[in-house]
Amino acid sequence: MQALIFDVDGTLADTETAHLHAFNAAFADAGLDWCWDEALYTRLLKVAGGKERLLHYWRMIEREEAEGAKAWEFVEAVHALKTRHYTERVRDGGLPLRPGIARLLDEARAAGMRVAIATTTTPANLDALLQVHFGATWRTRFAAIGDAATSPAKKPAPDVYRDVLEQLGLPAVACVAFEDSGNGLLAARAAGIPTVVTPSGYTAHDCFDGALAVVPHLGDPQTPLQPLRGEAQRWVDLAMLRRWHRHATRTIEPASFEAPDAALSPVNSPC
Ligand code: XBP
Ligand code: MG
Fold first, then answer.
1. Which of the two ends of the chain, N or C, has the fewest CB atoms closer than 10 A to its terminal CB?
2. Percent of the chain at pLDDT above 70?
3. Contact residues for 240 (Cβ-Cβ < 8 A; gap 6+)
């Protein structure tokens, strides 16, 4: 195992509620009577990419209008408003990293292991989220970054993961990916990367077939996980990942690591 590749939204931080509020603020700015609630947004999140999600919704409600170049220009204008609301909200208020993320990034750095980002979100959103936690030079913490600008084809397409593997100069089997959603898992698996899933509230009922492990979060001493089957420690560290990775790359089916209290779809549930 030579590198860790992290998704952003829902994985590094629980960002989707901030995205949802930013979309609704943009609709108000644009004079639209659209207002998404969490239930609708959970369904819309099946479409990766904010612009694609907007167009998908518009086609759902007013199909005939949402066609052609003019429609895409309008989507881009509304999405630009949304990105401004999101970045202002996140930069000012900051969103906490999910449990175990800062610890694992520090552990990887101390071990000389490269870490990377593979996201479908807009680059400005990355800056807003990560400069709060890692300062203005946050990009130096990551050996490779793939985002909506470098890979226009959104998850579940594997493009962003293949781009990051190319930047790293590593084969898929030498890495472990971290995702929160079914689409993200499909993208990482299509690129051949063993993947740990830490679902968010929006994705807890997605399908995670083929995941290396499904855990509520990565945990840490202050926020321990419920006991994991076959593991004494109650947070995911490099040593545990190396064991899981060896299982995966030796094509031995790893045990399903379900935290008993996790209301999660078991790893090999029928999807
Ligand atoms: C999740 C997404 C993004 C965000 C919104 O990205 O699908 O579209 O929901 O961000 P990730 P944008 O791959 O990090 O889970 O509006 O900038 O797309
Ligand atoms: Mg995600």
1. C
2. 93
3. 231, 233
